[in-house]
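Predict structure. Chain length: 443.
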Amino acid sequence: MTTPITGRSAAEIAASVRELIERGTLQSGDALPSVRSLAEGLGVNRNTAVAAYGQLAQAGLVVTRGRGGTRVAGRSPVAQEGFAPDTVLRDVATGNPDPALIPDPSSALARAVGHRVLYGEPVIDPGLERWAEAWMRADLAPAELRLTITSGAGDAVERLLAQALVRDDAVALEDPCFLTSIHTVRVGGYRAVPVPVDDEGMTVAGLRAALEQGVRAVVCTPRAQNPTGVSLSERRAAELRAVLREHPYVLVIEDDHFSMLSRAPFRSLIGPEHRRWALVRSVSKFLGPDMCLAVTASDPDTAERLAMRLTPGTTWVSHLLQRLTLALVTDAAVLEGIARAGDHYAERNQAFAARLTELGVPTEAGDGLNLWVGLPVPAREVSERLMRRGWLARTGDEFSLGSVPTDRRLRLTVHDLDDPEAERLAADIAAAVGAASGQSRSA
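Prediction complete.
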């Protein structure tokens, strides 16, 4: 079989295929040569061809289907958080905060207007910088830190990875994993290395294995992990810091997305001597997704690299938005409302978990906006039956990187359901589980 693919090393072969895809010579669904024919055609070892296809698969450019061969991957959209478009079903898969619990910024807007900002001025508003430094220092071990303001946590993580990595570098991600993190790594062309998550957080064995595979960065959610709701235990955090002590130059990114709303204490992977690190805290969960602002504290070298990507005149975050954020987070009434919102999310999730448990679907509520519900049958079957009853749920496989089974999990956003709705959804889940269980036994 003749092929335009060239190269002698795995990296060269993978780069050749990538270029053919980018030029349109190879298109979605096109079959690639078998490993054997590619190796023979290029005069390379079979293991070299296997490694090349492995690099392409990890970058999401090709898919391998066993006897079905290797094909160019389609451009199917990556699952995202938010409302499902064009559905008449009640969406319990949004991952959204309750809009009724997002503070009204009207009264704070007047306080946000002030000095006109021009090109060449400091990127961070001085008032927000003073408040944010105290907020971040309270939970960090390293003595020296610098602050950066970005357009949300996703923007921060993307820029942090871009300033430290090159395409095909390996990144350790929690498994199951937050959808935005999966999307960011795939779009950046990095290789995701899954680290399993258990009921105490990222596992020690999983992190150690990822580091042995040469990951250049680790992305971790220290509390309210999405989708599981797990927060790091004190013991686990200490064990992970001990592992990372031997790898001080691996970039550790902590995404503390739930911060002010969390019912769990903050426990960090970042030890006092770690050299490359960043703690990211977005305001989107407690001030609303449209605020599009995150504070990043990092080591000075990382902060300097980030600052080069956020210079005035290009992509700095609006000072009006920074001042509005400061006006809200220093308002006593707003802070009281945030505390009430955190209590509300915790109470509603715990109440729904108790309902499911009473109906024979044992569930524990973690921290965060969502519930991670374990099922005795495949989640797809339950999800399909829920659709017939008027509900749109999200199955666990959308969050999977493949190291742990998630096909018997549902992730539900139920905090905005009133009691009658919550009772009906819980009953419908139990009925769907029962029907799917009966079908499995009869089969």
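Summary: The first strand starts at residue 62 and ends at 64.
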